[in-house]
From TrEMBL:
Pathway: Protein modification; protein ubiquitination
UniProt-listed SUPFAM superfamilies: RING/U-box (SSF57850)
Keyword Zinc-finger annotated: yes
Signal peptide bounds: 1-24
Name of the protein: RING-type E3 ubiquitin transferase
GO molecular function terms attached to this record: ubiquitin protein ligase activity; zinc ion binding
EC number: 2.3.2.27
One Pfam family of this chain: zf-C3HC4_3
Reaction equation(s) it catalyzes: S-ubiquitinyl-[E2 ubiquitin-conjugating enzyme]-L-cysteine + [acceptor protein]-L-lysine = [E2 ubiquitin-conjugating enzyme]-L-cysteine + N(6)-ubiquitinyl-[acceptor protein]-L-lysine
Organism of derivation: Ilex paraguariensis (yerba mate)
InterPro entries: MUL1-like (IPR022170), SP1/SPL1 (IPR044231), Znf_RING (IPR001841), Znf_RING/FYVE/PHD (IPR013083)
Length: 341
């Protein structure tokens, strides 16, 4: 039998090891990016940097936009707004009871051109929704109960539904939010400086500082490493345990086979003695007869019948430790104790 438990642990440890290496590599990359303290220095940095190699930097500032979005429910002004609407209802199942369920009705996102501003300059951010670490603030969460129209309620009930209402959630990136962005800085034809996702490299838009991002990635890399090591040790333990049990089982079967062969080799001599005993007088027959011994322990008389093969070659005590008949190797479904005169 294959030790699937140990193999699964080893494969899981390998996956965690790869995740740990990836997190550690990302942390090293973030340590190597150029840190720009003031946005006004970006123009000079772009002019002095080689045009062939992409310039990946980390900058910080507050979110701003010339055309912000006015949120309908929360009243906030933001640059990225996500709206979702879920219909909640009770559904009649086959068991005759009502269970609560939901279905997505609406999911849309709005984004306007926006920038980071640190007081010394502006840097437009492009493609922030594809960045790692972007978390939108929940601006509002409203539950609108369904109307209690008699006709609508009757139709829904006939379909096995009871409408409860609609849950609307509004998530927004408000203006004035402090962000840290890691990405490639470019200058377009009109001289506007933008930061975007590089062809190869990190792209982060986060509320955390660059030092917090590096520390967080390092923490996860260490956690993945320790978890991978623990699963590896446990997996090898399971595999070694399975191998030891397999070896002991094979050894026990080998010893059992040897005992059966030795017992079979002694049977002809005993049969001759039994034949001579039949010719003896009734008074000495009991003294000449030898009991039929268990082929396992060779000490007790065999008194157990194996079902379904029907062989009787072991005592009751030895039969408790067998799963297959020692004579025909068929699986033992039941052991029946017999009484001999």
């Amino acid at each position: 039998m294959v030790p699937w438990g140990g193999i699964t642990c080893c494969l899981s440890s390998a996956a965690l090891y790869l995740l740990g290496r990836s997190s550690g590599r990302d942390a090293d990359v973030l340590k190597s990016v150029s840190r720009v303290d003031q946005l006004k220095d970006l123009a000079q940095l772009l002019d002095t940097t080689c045009k062939v190699v992409p310039l990946v930097v980390t900058v910080s500032g507050r979110v701003g936009s010339e055309t912000p979005i006015n949120c309908e429910y929360s009243g906030l002004r933001g640059v990225i707004v996500e709206e979702t609407a879920e219909q909640h209802f009770l559904k009649h199942n086959d068991a005759g009871s009502w269970i609560q369920d939901s279905a997505m009705m609406l999911s849309m996102c709005k984004e306007v051109p926006w920038y980071l501003d640190d007081g010394t300059g502006r840097l437009f951010v492009v493609g922030a929704r594809n960045a790692t670490g972007l978390v939108l603030t929940v601006g509002s969460e409203v539950f609108e109960e369904s109307g209690r129209s008699l006709v609508r309620g009757t139709l829904d009930y006939l379909q096995g539904l009871k409408m409860l209402g609609v849950k609307r959630v509004e998530r927004v990136l408000p203006t004035g939010t402090a962000l840290t962005v890691v990405g490639e800085v470019i200058k377009d034809d009109v001289g506007t400086i933008r930061i975007q996702q590089p062809y190869k490299g990190p792209f982060y838009v986060s509320h955390k500082t660059i030092d917090q991002l590096i520390a967080n990635l390092g923490k996860w890399a260490r956690w993945y490493k320790y978890a991978s090591l623990g699963l590896t040790v446990f997996g090898f333990y399971l595999i070694a345990k399975h191998a030891f049990q397999y070896f002991m089982e094979r050894k026990r079967h080998s010893e059992l086979r040897k005992r059966v062969l030795d017992a079979a080799a002694k049977r002809p001599g005993r049969d001759n003695e039994d034949g001579n005993a039949e010719n003896a007088s009734d008074s000495t027959r009991k003294d000449c007869l030898m009991p039929d011994l268990c082929v396992i322990c060779l000490e007790q008389e065999y008194n157990s019948v194996f079902v379904p093969c029907g062989h009787m070659c072991c005592c009751t005590l030895c039969s408790l430790h067998l799963t297959n008949c020692p004579l025909c190797r068929r699986r033992i479904d039941q052991v029946v104790k017999t009484f001999r005169h």
